[in-house]
Amino acid sequence: MYIEQRIYTANPGKLPAWLKNYEEVGGPASARHMGPLLGMFTVEIGQINRVVFMRGFDDIDDREKGLIAREADPDWARFRAENAKLGALMIQESKLMKPTPWSPIQKAGQPFVRTLPGTGMFVDHRTYDFVPGKMQLWLDAYRDMGLPVQQRLLGQLLSFSVVECGPINQAVFMWGFTSLGDRDKRRGEMAKDPAWGEFGKAVAATGALKQQTTMVLRPVSFSPIR
């Protein structure tokens, strides 16, 4: 399976109109031709005026076929024409990723099952960049030592992937929480856990990590993950 992650940066004040156009016109046109939408989010903390969304493909060649078919769809043409009038978007970024074996998302169209209590969700979206040749050392240690601690103490793991096309030597993963306070409390408990300390020592010894970047996201009303 491949996951395409896109991050669109909008001009201030124009993202709501773009999202409305996508929900009503562009999204349905994409759903007819492209892989299933996995999740769509706006940035709450980080570089704001941004939307982050992911689409899944069990066969990556289906992406190209879908793009061609979507371009011929009159509704997609209408969506693009309206966007041109809006002048909403400044920057568009895309990367192709593959889920790790422990990622909850393993197939396109796989239904999202929420395990968090309540209805609200804040998403901790993390991007880790690694020294070339050392990413697998970190991933192995995370799988064996870090993940069990986080599964015990954090919220809900939503996705964990490595980048195949784009900035390689990179992992992208997301955890869901009921609130920012829930996130802070759980991460505080994790920081005090001895097993998490052992994981930290193990990965520090690998010298694998170059950079860590985080954003806090919120699902849009029509996101499958919410």
Features:
226 residues; alpha+beta; Alpha-Beta Plaits; 2 domains; eight-stranded antiparallel barrel; 6 helices; 8 strands; 39% helix; globular
SSE map:
Layout: E1 2-10, H1 15-33, E2 37-45, E3 50-57, H2 61-71, H3 74-86, E4 89-99, E5 122-130, H4 135-153, E6 156-165, E7 170-177, H5 180-192, H6 194-206, E8 209-219
Antiparallel strand pairs: 1-3, 1-4, 2-3, 2-8, 4-6, 5-7, 5-8, 6-7
Helix pairs in contact: 1-2, 1-3, 4-6
Number of strands: 8
CATH topology of the largest domain: Alpha-Beta Plaits
Major sheet attributes: 8 strands, antiparallel, barrel
Task: Determine Rg (CA atoms, Å).
Answer: 18 Å
Count of individual helical segments: 6
The percentage of residues in β strands lies in: 25-35%
Q: Compute the number of structural domains.
A: 2
In which order are the strands of the major sheet placed?
A: 1-3-2-8-5-7-6-4
Question: Could you describe the 3D structure shown?
Answer:
39% of the residues lie in helices and 33% in strands. By secondary structure, it is an alpha+beta fold. The protein has two domains: 2-98, Alpha-Beta Plaits; 99-219, Alpha-Beta Plaits (2-Layer Sandwich), CATH 3.30.70. The protein has an eight-stranded antiparallel barrel with strand order 1-3-2-8-5-7-6-4, surrounded by five helices. A hairpin with a 4-residue loop joins strand 6 and strand 7 (170-177). The radius of gyration is 18 Å and the shape is globular. It starts with a strand and ends in a 7-residue tail after the last strand.
